[in-house]
Sequence to fold (246 residues):
Amino acid sequence: MNVAVFNSKNELAQAAADSAAEIIRRAIADRGQAYLIAATGASQFEFLEALVHQDLDWKQTTFFHLDEYVGLPASHPASFRRYLKERIADVVNPGAFHFVNGEADNLAEECGRVGELISQQTIDAAFVGVGENGHLAFNDPPADFKTTEPYLVVTLDEACLKQQVGEGWFTDVDEVPRQAISMSIQQILKAQEVICIAPDRRKAQAIRDCLELEVSPLRPASILQQHPRVTVYLDGKSASLLTAPR
Fold:
């Protein structure tokens, strides 16, 4: 695992976007298409803004959606479908963007549908974040490290619910959906490379625990320690509790 610390979120975002662009260019050159996983949340704002301004052949990219709330309309300000359309899909018009429909009548069938799509491809890069509770996607602790299903329905814990309110997506915890469809831990780990963007002081405890303590389902993002090609991009605030020199 590589850990890169920057002075500001903008510096962090630009460095991560430059790295992502190189991966995308290489994938397109090698096999004509780049397959990517896109994360959401307040921590990804600057990164995605820098990424969509990269000079790339976006028509040769295919994106997969990391997670979505169950039952939340796509028109809702907190909808991750809306987030990704506004920040990626409608900006660069990729060749394809496979969204997760959290409003599906049959959630198991929806998990199977997007799971079948992603299972057909080798993912070149996963862009992910780390939750304040250490979650990876919406895999809250204790996360399921074993399931091989690409997508699953998960129940969000209290810390996750509070984070969504704290980031301004909802005005009250009672408004936050209790369930979500999330990409599984094992599916995320199948990506050839992982770019993890995790700025801000509120992430510092989770970053320290997930990077410096043993791998555990109680610290879902700690599983990234086992991936051969992962870079964690931090700012000074999110790196502030790390004890190992960086």
